[in-house]
Amino acid sequence: MAKRQDYDYLIKLLLIGDSGVGKSCLLMRFAEDSFTSSFITTIGIDFKIKKVLIDGKWVKLQIWDTAGQERFRTITSAYYRGAMGILLVYDVTDEASFTNIRNWMKNIEQHASDNVVKVLVGNKSDMDESKRAVPYSRGQALADEFRMQFFETSAKANTNVDEVFQSVARDIMLRLKDTQPDAASSGGGGGGPNLRVGAARPKAASSKSGCC
Amino acid sequence: MQATASGPVLREGRLYTEQESLAGGLSREGSFAEQRRPGGDGLQVVVKEDWVGGSGPASHPLADGEAEGEEGLEEEEYEGMYPGNESSDGYSDVEEGRPGRGTEVVFVKEGVCVWPAADRRGQRISGRLSLIKQSGCLFLCWLPYAGGAAEAEHGGSGVGSGSSGRQPGGGGRAGKQPGGCGRSAAGEGEGGSGHSLYAVHPIPLSDIKALRKHTPALGPHHVTLTLATGVSLPSFFFQHGGVKAFLSCLREHACLVRSADDPSTYLINDTADPLQRSLYSLELLGPVGRPSLAGASLAGLSSAGGQWALADGDGGLRAQLSELVDRFQQLTQSARNTASSLLAGSALLGGGGGATLPGPHGSGSGAPAGAGASAGGSPLASQQVPQQQAPQGQQQQGQLLLRRRSLEGASTGVGVFELLEGGAGCGGSPCWRERPRPPPLTLAELRSFCDRDGRLLNPAAFRQRVADGGVEPEGRPEAWKLLLGVNMPEWSAAQRAQRQEERRGAYRRLRLQWSNIGREQAARCSKWRERRSRIEKDVRRTDRAHRFYAHERSQAHAMLAHVLLTYERYNQDLGYVQGMSDLLAPILYVVASNAPRGSGGSHQLDAPVALGVEAEAFWAFEALMRRMEPNFSSDSRVMHAQLGALRDLLALLDPPLHAHLAARDCLSLFFCYRWLLLHFKREFTFDEVLCLWEALWAGPPGLHLYLCVAVLMRHRRIILGHNWRFDEMLQWAVGLAGKLRLEELLRDAERLAAAAGAAGRDVLAALEAGDGGGGGG
Predict the structure, then answer these.
(1) What's the CATH code of the domain at B520?
(2) Rounded CA gap, A171 and A31, in Å?
(3) What residue spans carry the region label Disordered (chain A) (predicted)?
(4) pLDDT of B492-524, one tens digit each?
(5) A53 CA to chain B: closest CA distance, Å?
(6) Would B243 be classed as within a structural domain?
(7) How many CB pairs under 8 A join A and B?
């Protein structure tokens, strides 16, 4: 399987949060730059891939999108294991989805690896202020409590979406550099897409995900 | 891994390729789907693995990022105003989307009669004779008018179509026939339940061997058709002429070769078969006996057919012809007697006095010839009267040698199965023979399955017919209620109407349970609020790509929400779980599609009509949920059990693939999760799902599991060719949505179910015993 690779890093991300907070829409916006309010519900698990250039490195993001409803957690939590970064998403107009973030945190503690990078995302920030149920400050406070980054986003208005994903990816790359210094250094001089052959791959491939 | 794979693969390949036979052999490189054509058993050519790559994404899904996650639904056009349009327009849209598209009626003749009694003293039965072309194959179909002669005048609405001949054992069917009891043959009408006995559900032309034209100086011209099995259909009397047109239409689609000896007799070959066509174009003697015949039909017949094919034009031919015709007559007679005696038995069992079912007749004009044959709802039924069928069935079982290797030892329960080649002389294996898919069941044909009071005469034949050909949109509301068990087969039309009223009342009461929850009360019930908001959120994003649900805040959305809210009240233990809206949407659409639209050109349903639609959709959904509910249980136990059963079936049917997945940590089969949970709702287009689900409901239990196996095996070359780990497998599986070919996969699934045989049934039984049905039957 000595296949030519067209990326320097393969990073696996996971989107979790209550149903209807806009996880799939964030992903659609990020991966395909499109938005529809009538997107279908996610059943089980779905995912998309996007390649981005971060700090001169080509990063292939493999983003897993999960069903929000609690009923599917026994299935979806099986996917936590291989995730290198997790985006916890709530809806700023839905108080319950924010309170539930604590439950989602418990899930992460149970199923995800310890050094997983987390980020808190308050979606639907474009909504009218009269509809807002969770002020920015509360989101920030919660993020601080769990020592993670915080973003308010709007998939609809395309605010902060790229930033969230880039930020997580960058954090993970930093950690990878710490653990795999050679992988970090052999970038091929800021590299075009096809310059590197097999580097980050083994790391990702060895993180057997999803099988329980 | 690869090396060990190749051996069994070939043998399994036979599973898939049996039908391809000689014709298939000519174009073996072509895609599997294109080779769907009648007949072709007998010669068994083991086709190499090419079929595997025939469908689906050919490339590594990881090769380009674009391929992922496409949803088939999105490809549909986004058009039209809710609720689409007039119901009739709606149908045409639906038809375009159906997998069996390409159904075309090429000939219709109204007022074509059969005479139940040989001497024509009895009442004739008038009906519609049609030739239907579907996927390149021609079908002949004759359906009696349901309501008597009056319908003949305006009977053009429904396209005649009906049951394939592929129906299970004629004996049981005949035994169940209550039709005709207690009614005089000279009774008032051509209606009567007896008439449905004569219906000729669509027969592929390849099953028709010969045609004899009768042109008496007095009285209507008529034709008698003889099937390859030797059974004759009842003669069709063209009351208003049209024999010539019928023949010339046939000639357009088939090779009709006139006998030199008897100019009124023709042999028929379906030219849909390219082999036939090419042989024909060589201007050999014409009606070359189809290779299929050699295996399919009775030994004597086929040999006659074979010699016929090779004989040259003169004396030899004449002799063969008369021999052939003689044999047909003999066989017809014996089949008739058999079926008649069965019918006589059923009449006694039925207890009705004065049964007037046709008894044994002399061959006479041939008019009653098919009486026995069509008694089972299909003329081909007599092909499978027990006496003939039983040994064949055993042989068939015998062909399938399931040899389990160290079952106890292997934790995966790997069994190795091996198909022994059945020689051409084994008497054929009708069930294995690939038959052309018959056109969908129409409403008219559905009615021909019922007696005068609307009772379904033979549920098994009905189900088989649906499994074979699906249902036309117009027939779906009724057919689905029967398939789901909302209506019982034994209910008469009056009883059904009464039950519908009762259901409506019950629904209305259930609905009050939530519609009466006021703001105050809702404020005190967070669980209710949460479920309601979830339903509202999900309704807005259910099947929006389909025109019926395209517009937010439409009546369709309101009805969808109402039914789900009512179900939440009805089944509070389960509540609402995501995915349920996916299960309801097709049902609601089907129920609503037949409802009368509002007055004044409005597309909206009037309020009482909408309520009635909701009620019917609710109870159909409730029936479906009784099968599917275990899938949604909170501990996912049943889903895991189903994945386990799928694992066992895969081990049984494709050990190398099973081993490949096992070696790569993929045996959790979680990538099949959505397929199982929603029965492929997300993998096919909305209209395909309608066809798929009715096939699953009508088919054998566990068919959805075999469908999963079929999808994997169709792509086995891709899977085996890659060293995918779980992530990549999942990515591949997710990317299949909208790219699967329903019809061929369904046929595969049916074949796999048959191939798995008893071992497969054991797996399903174990699943069932663990209360893990999950929508099995």
Answers:
(1) 1.10.8.270
(2) 19
(3) 180-212
(4) 999 999 999 999 999 999 999 999 999 999 999
(5) 15
(6) yes
(7) 104
